[in-house]
Each structure stands twice: as structure tokens, then as C-alpha cells.
Amino acid sequence: MTTIAIIGLGKMGKGLAKRLAGKTDLIVSTRDLAAATAFAATLPAAHVTVLAQDAAIASADVVVLALPYAAALQAAANPALAGKIVIDISNPVTADFSGLTIGHTTSAAEEIQARAPLAHVVKAYNTIFADLFDLPTSQTASVPVFLAGNDAAAVATVAALVALSGFAVEQTGGLDAARLIEPVGMLNIRFGFGLGRGTAIAPQWLELAA
Predict the structure, then answer these.
(1) I need a labelling partner for 68 at 20 to 30 A (CA). Which of 14, 153, 178, 188 fits?
(2) CATH code matching the domain that covers 3-194, chosen among 3.40.50.720, 2.40.160.20, 3.40.30.10, 3.20.20.150
(3) Strands, E, within the chain: which ranges?
(4) What is the pTM assigned to this prediction?
(5) Rounded CA gap, 202 and 95, in Å?
């Protein structure tokens, strides 16, 4: 069974943990281990472990950096990530959430890959709001999670994880596609907060009959 470590227990980290708990070996980690332990106690007990960040990364096959971009970039320097699949869910937003701090010529995912050159970074989950994790999986099964990554095996592993967490998979190609996915995440934030659409929304590509 694949061991997944979720680093960071904000709304996204907790939401993903709730969807995956009981379905795979799961490690949760945050700076406040007492809070992580209390949260883990609310999950199905089997296969959930609480560890400090370094131990969590060392013990996992797949590491989800459920952190803001700056913190994810810092965590990516951990040498224990070498050879592991690393999922970047971040959007490199400004402090006031009005736009992105980088883009077009690079992306958060590519910068994390540069910081962890021996890891297999895959972009995922950055275009959905955390509130979607609280919905029944029947309501999110057709909601796409856009994936970008350079290693085909790593992308396939993350695609299976996305399906396990109750979402659809939308492949976008190599990791440079994160330059396009991250602005989609920012657009979703603008719709949700700036234009008052709320957080029960998600972007989706439709295939129309010719």
C-alpha cells in the first residue's frame, strides 16, 4: 500500500486527509503535533500516523506539500524528498490574493522542482477550493483536478490518488503546464471571493459534440 504524507493541515490538507483516510497508509504532519494528533483522532484509526515533518517525508512514498507556496518551497529543500513523488497544490498568490507573484515563464511547481531536483514533482489540486472536500464524493466525481508533471509514472500514481480522493483527472502534460494551471487557480479564487461566487465552484473543461 502506498504511504502518503500530507505536510500541512490547513483546510486543503485536512480536506484531502479526510478523503484519503482509511483508503491508504496516511501520515499527517504539521508544526503543532498536538493539533495534528487531535485531528488524526477524528479520522478512521487504521493506517493514520502523526509524525514530525522530516520523519513524515522520510517515511512516505508520496509527499503532499499542502502548504502556501513560500513554505512549500522551503520544505522542498529537504534532501529526503529525493526519489519521491511530491505533489504541489499551491498557488503563488500575493498577500492580498489579488494576483500571482510568478507566472508565464515559470511556476510554483517548477520552482519547487528546481529546489528538489531529485524528486518527481506533480502539480495537482490547486484549482479547487477546500470546501469541495466536505461534499459527498458523488458531487465531486466529475470535478477535474488538473495534473502536470514530467515523470509519467509519478503522474500516473497521482492520477490514481486523485481518483481515490473522489475527483476526476485532467492531464495537461509536462510540468511547464503548471504555468497555465496556476492562473486558472487564481481565476477560481477571483470568481469565488472577488466576484462573490463562493467556494462551491470549480473550473471544468467540457467536450461538446461537433
Answers:
(1) 153
(2) 3.40.50.720
(3) 3-7, 25-29, 48-50, 62-65, 85-88, 120-123, 144-149, 168-171
(4) 0.96
(5) 22
